[in-house]
């Protein structure tokens, strides 16, 4: 039997402390990674670090294992999971009719935060693909995640938050959501990017469609593909007559308990608007370089540039709940480059509640 060392338990400071405290938090030693891979091979779920956000991983080829992910998260069964692979050869094992452009993009952006949707082979169970005939594939770059896939085979992993809540960017966040629900979490430190991978599909050999923006930006994809379309559902609420190109677009997402309001406008008008909100229960989420002497509410900062904002945004939304905020007024980020990912997450966290001043 493998000896787990060292195992730590957290004193949890979560907004909602959960059930029995029996999830082990594992330091990322080789031994513990081997143990986590064993759990996955046995059909169990494990919280695992990736370079984007923490994932809740299980054997992608085992329908019983994958079902546990949906149960743990409270995730609707028709929302497909991304399959994480170790090497490019695995693509032909799990997908068919893969367009040539897929391999060009893989060459450029893998391993890394890009998920590409293609037709699935029957080895991928419908439980994993949410009933679809397609599969989203990603080759992550995080060393721990890569080691796990090498040892356990393809791993299905959504973000390791309870469904609808902001994604976890630290092992602590995963413990807050999953303690007592899953057997183990590996602590790989803070996630490097902080927002989930860019998800794309292919309209044809030349056309890439972005279904979820991430750290592989439209501008980066344009260097490798002739045409890149940002799907309209990224910045707009889905019309009821349009089928979601990605099931995840249908669902409430990234939302803390607090009511998030996205505010577009300059800092002066932001402060004037903030004046109208209750000073006790409202938090302003502002930029690092904003003049805090002018802020009429309690505040938190989330960086200045898009990379920093991506890194901090989910963590700040979670902190708002810890602070029992009722409302979070957010200074809208720039929607350029990686900023589009930050803007998209905040827009969804707010339920499309935007004030333009
Ligand atoms: O960075 C990431 O992508 C993280 C880490 C753990 O890898 N994973 C992640 O998974 O964000 P998840 O399940 O939280 O988000 C995946 C999104 C969902 O909105 C899902 O609907 C969409 O990708 N998706 C997955 N497979 C798809 C498919 N076959 N067709 C359309 N959309 C798909
Ligand atoms: Mg997610």
Short summary of the structure?
The protein has 357 residues and is an alpha/beta fold. The chain has helices spanning 30-41, 63-73, 90-94, 100-109, 126-129, 143-152, 171-178, 218-222, 267-275, 306-322, 339-349; strands at residues 7-8, 24-27, 46-48, 55-59, 82-84, 95-96, 114-120, 134-138, 155-156, 184-187, 198-204, 207-212, 227-230, 259-264, 282-286, 298-301, 327-331, 354-356. The model is unreliable at 1-12 (pLDDT under 50).
Structure description:
- By secondary structure, the chain is an alpha/beta fold.
- Helices cover 29% and strands 22% of the residues.
- The chain contains 11 helices and 18 strands.
- The strands form 2 sheets. Strands 1, 2, 3, 4, 5, 6, 7, 8, 9, 10, 11, 12 and 13 form a 13-stranded mixed beta sheet that branches.
- Strand 12 (207-212), helix 8 (218-222) and strand 13 (227-230) form a beta-alpha-beta unit.
